[in-house]
Write a structure and sequence with these properties.
The chain is mainly α and 84 residues long. The chain contains five helices and no strands.
Length: 84
Amino acid sequence: MEVIDSMRSDFAPVMSEIKKFIDQGNLKGAKQLAHKVKGASASVGAIDIYSAADALEAKLLLGEEAIVEVENLDQTLHVFLNNQ
């Protein structure tokens, strides 16, 4: 349970940070955060978060628009943060 609590505190600000990076054109920063979320979620078996973060990271690597992927990760994290 400590790991989950730690993830909650780490993940709480991550979407606002990712959105800020994207708004500033800093796709590298946004990609790094998505990668961090992907790794942390994989380590605890949070497959929905992993998948959403992976999809966002892939779009950012290609330099493509990622509006749908940002919203998907945001919603997935919201469920995790509020339902555990």
